[in-house]
Specification:
The complex is a heterodimer.
Chain A: E1 5-12, H1 18-31, H2 36-56, E2 62-69, E3 73-81, H3 104-116, E4 119-124, E5 129-137, E6 157-160, H4 164-177, H5 190-199, E7 203-208, E8 214-222, E9 227-235, H6 239-257, E10 264-267, E11 280-289, E12 292-302, E13 309-313, H7 318-327, E14 332-336, E15 349-355, E16 360-367, H8 372-385, E17 390-396, H9 400-403, H10 406-411, E18 414-420, E19 428-433
Parallel strand pairs in A: 9-10, 13-14, 16-17
Antiparallel strand pairs in A: 1-2, 2-3, 3-5, 4-5, 6-7, 7-8, 8-9, 10-12, 11-12, 15-16, 17-19, 18-19
Chain B: H1 10-13, H2 24-31, E1 37-39, H3 50-57, H4 73-83, E2 90-93, H5 96-107, E3 113-117, H6 123-130, E4 134-138, H7 147-153, E5 158-164, H8 176-186, E6 191-195, H9 210-216, E7 220-225, E8 238-241, H10 244-251, H11 261-271, H12 275-299, E9 303-304, E10 310-314, H13 319-327, E11 331-335, E12 344-348, H14 352-366
Parallel strand pairs in B: 1-11, 3-4, 3-5, 5-6, 6-7
Antiparallel strand pairs in B: 2-8, 7-8, 9-10, 10-12, 11-12
Helix pairs in contact in B: 3-11, 4-11, 5-6, 12-14
The chains are: A alpha+beta, B alpha/beta.
């Protein structure tokens, strides 16, 4: 695994220090071999987020800033205290963003920061404490066309993948053989996939045949402190051999992670090659593209005995959750989370992940606000306008305030689809937006 | 402002603490059952030997206020008398897990390595990891610990080799010849721990007696326990035996007073009265093993039935799903994914009613789609 380059600073909440941060961001990008465009985007992200936070965080307080350079991305993490946080301008649909104590320059900066980063995440860490993370990806060239081997001689073995050339080749084979829905985005740029493996961001097992050729691939990445999200199994060998490859991939995967800290593995994009008996179905998602829809199984398995969990439950979700947990033979302590009677701020903030390859938009509420239902509707409309037919919303049942939003989601046209045990801090409910008939 | 976690060594920070099963009453409430057959921890369903039961019943509650012998003096004397050794060749711990920890602390420092099998009792690997010691894991060969592979994995950094004999969870074991060849090949380059937690279940005369082996190989340490055959798992008593020199080294890193008074008394009594108990337990285990073989043969399930009071079977559905479904029927088994055997379960061999309950529950839950 490559060593990250990491800078940590406690910076006074004073915009005058922004240049220190942009200089550090530039040096980090340069050291990591990032292009000029990514470097500038990262500097802009750091500068504008920091500038906005100085207007929110008391001048006597420091903002802890950690800049991390990995082979495939640059990350800026801000840890700070604030009496209130209103970052509505970060919504992807925001047109006139507002910052705390808003001044026009600050508003524009926040909009720029939100657009310059490839993704960002805000976390309320209790009381007055918040965390904000933003990432800028390295640009990679798309993968070249690859030639699959003519034959795959048995027997097949699988082990953790680490050879960059082999990984890039296997990722390209998978991208060529499977629909985009099943493949991680990095398979389209195999060099990025290999770098993500080296960074430790993604892990994988590669199946090889008797001649040492890649015959299959299965990759995974943490989706929470307790869960791993896997993609695959991608099988290149045909027929019965393919079934054997799928089995050795899954056995190797589970053996590698079975004694780690994770409780579960799951996938919303498992391939039909997943062998019988190794995973449970959590249910189905309905995937649509150009008016044609198909079901996609959500696969899951525990890695150890389920010890139970407490989850927050809104009355609107009670019947759905009772049925889901009963089907899974899974015990949960239910805590009541009624709809909120008041909201902590005027403007809500939604995190949005857009994936054009899969026609997929993923939403979750980062900050609750009075305009949440309208904000959800605006996001849905914007995503549909961009041609994204599959819109999911993720709700973490370990957070009372998140669970309490079930009524808002229903009002905005979402329907609960599946429960992902340990998919977040606690169990996660995937909601799917159903267009009005 | 540094976080508490920033002050922790990386090998501790990256280690996840073990989460044991919930207590039975909690599990019964969670799964909506009124009783639970415990087939998950390889406990002895017959309980402790009669003299140990009497000693426990006779324990004066006032003695709970008195510290126990800090070095298990009487128990070590009883062990020495039974096995023809010096009391100084024994070290008693709070279960054999504690002596694993003492051995790693005594012989290893961060950066060193231990060698063990990839599919064996997990605690060797865990203790190594959270001590900054690399566990080098050797794959099993034909479900047994691979002597050649273990030897090949030993390097100058290797300080301890852990061999679980019979192996948990496969029940496979090294015979005298395999062990002697291995020790000759190792030639004293590392300490060898022979974990014989299940040795009292083995009747084959070709099974090596670690306490005899260590008389010829001074770098061998033997672990045994009162938690399995002797039915004292709830009191947590295990011990190691080795050369006086080796035991003296381990004693330096071993916490005194870690074994409670009742455990020491019960274990001492158990040793004095074990022949009938061992015979009865072996009979029960043999009967249960035969029952499960028939069951799994009938269901067409692959299984590994080695030595020890357990049996491992491959399941047609995820072992963790099977666990939850069996729990709803009041039967608790051990899932094997954590032992790197995905889709296998381990079932303790106990008395007929519990075995029958398991069989009925298994058939019922496997019938579900």
């Amino acid at each position: 695994m490559s060593a990250d380059c990491r800078l940590a600073m406690d910076v006074p909440s004073d915009v005058g220090f922004a240049r220190v941060l942009t200089a550090a961001a530039e040096a980090l990008a340069l050291r990591g071999g990032f292009g000029r465009r990514e470097s500038l985007r990262f500097q802009l992200t750091v500068e504008e987020f920091f500038g906005c936070l100085t207007e929110t965080v008391d001048a006597s307080q420091a903002i802890r800033v950690v800049l991390t350079g990995k082979k495939h991305l640059l990350r800026a993490a801000f840890d700070f205290e604030a009496a209130s946080l209103s970052l509505g301008g970060l919504n992807v649909v925001a047109a006139a963003p507002a910052c705390a104590a808003s001044e026009p320059a600050g508003d524009l900066g926040l909009l720029l920061a939100g657009k310059a980063a490839d993704r960002f995440h805000i976390e309320h860490r209790g009381e007055r404490r918040f965390g904000l993370e933003a990432e800028v990806d390295k640009a990679y060239p798309p993968g070249a066309a690859v030639q699959a081997p003519a034959a795959y001689p048995a027997p097949f073995t699988a082990r953790a993948g680490s050879d960059a050339g082999q990984l890039a080749y296997a990722a390209a084979l998978a991208a060529a053989a499977y629909p985009a829905w099943h493949c991680p985005g990095s398979f389209q740029t195999p060099g990025k996939f290999a770098d993500m493996i080296e960074d430790g961001q993604v892990r994988c097992v590669v199946a090889t045949d008797a001649a040492g050729q890649p015959a299959g691939l299965l990759s995974w990445t943490p989706c929470s402190d307790r869960g791993l999200y896997f993609s695959g199994p991608f099988v290149f060998a045909p027929g019965q051999d393919g079934a054997a490859v799928a089995r050795v991939l899954v056995e190797a995967f589970l053996s590698l992670v079975g004694r780690e800290k994770y409780e579960i593995v799951l996938s919303l994009r498992a391939t039909p090659d997943a062998p019988d008996g190794y995973f449970e179905s959590l249910g189905e998602l309905k995937l649509c593209r150009e008016d044609a829809c198909r079901p996609q199984q959500v696969l899951f398995r525990h890695l150890r005995e389920d010890a139970g969990l407490a989850v927050w439950r809104h009355p609107d979700l009670e019947a759905f959750l009772l049925d889901a947990y009963d089907r899974l033979a899974m015990f949960r302590n239910f805590l009541n989370a009624p709809s909120p009677t008041s909201r902590p701020r005027r403007e809500s903030l939604l995190g949005a992940n857009l994936d054009r390859k899969r026609d997929l938009g993923e939403l979750r509420t980062l900050l609750d606000g009075e305009d949440l239902v309208d904000n959800l509707r605006r996001h849905v409309a914007a995503l549909r306008q961009r041609g994204l037919g599959n819109i999911f919303y993720y709700m973490d049942l370990s957070q009372e305030w998140e669970a309490a939003l079930a009524g808002d989601l229903t009002a905005a046209g979402f329907t609960p689809s599946v429960v992902l045990p340990h998919g977040g801090r606690g169990d996660l409910v995937v909601w799917q937006h159903v267009p009005a008939a | 402002m540094s976080r508490l976690l920033d002050r922790v060594p990386a090998y501790v920070r990256e280690f996840e603490s073990y989460v044991p099963s919930r207590p039975d009453p909690v599990l019964m409430r969670q799964y909506g059952v009124t009783g639970l057959h415990r087939l998950n921890n390889n406990e002895n369903a017959l309980g402790p030997p009669p003299l140990a039961q009497e000693a426990i019943a006779a324990f004066d509650p006032h003695r709970a206020a008195i510290y126990p012998p800090g070095d298990a003096y009487d128990l070590r004397a009883a062990l020495a008398a039974k096995f023809g050794k010096s009391p100084d060749q024994f070290l008693v711990g709070n279960g054999s897990c504690e002596v694993i920890s003492s051995v790693v602390r005594a012989f290893c420092q961060p950066g060193d390595a231990v060698v063990t099998a990839d599919k064996t009792f997990a605690v060797y690997e865990w203790v190594a990891r959270f001590s900054g010691v690399e566990p080098v894991l050797v794959p099993l060969r034909d479900q047994a610990i691979d002597a050649g592979g273990m030897l090949a994995a030993v390097t100058a950094r290797t300080k301890v080799v852990f061999i679980c004999n019979p192996n948990n969870p496969t029940g496979t074991w090294w015979n005298r010849q395999t062990l002697e060849t291995f020790l000759a090949g190792l030639a004293g380059r590392a300490v060898v721990v022979l974990d014989e937690a299940y040795r009292e279940y083995v009747t084959d005369p070709d099974f090596p007696d670690g306490l005899e082996v260590l008389t010829r190989h001074p770098h061998v340490l033997v672990f045994r326990t009162f938690s399995k055959m002797y039915g004292l798992a709830g009191l947590r008593v295990g011990y190691l035996c080795g050369s006086q020199e080796a035991v003296d080294i381990v004693r330096r890193t071993h916490i005194a007073y870690s074994v409670n008074a009742l455990g020491q008394i019960a274990a001492t009594a158990a040793l004095a009265d074990d022949a009938g108990h061992i015979a009865a337990t072996r009979g029960m285990v043999a009967q249960a093993r035969s029952f499960l073989r028939d069951l799994f043969d009938g269901l067409g399930l692959e299984y590994v039935a080695g030595e020890g009071n357990f049996l491992m079977a491959r399941t047609p559905v995820s072992d963790t799903l099977l666990y939850r479904r069996l729990m709803r029927e009041g039967v608790m088994i051990r899932t094997m994914t954590g032992f790197r055997f995905p889709n296998w379960i381990r079932v303790s061999l106990v008395e007929e009613p519990a075995m029958a309950a398991f069989a009925a529950a298994l058939k019922k839950v496997l019938d579900k789609p």
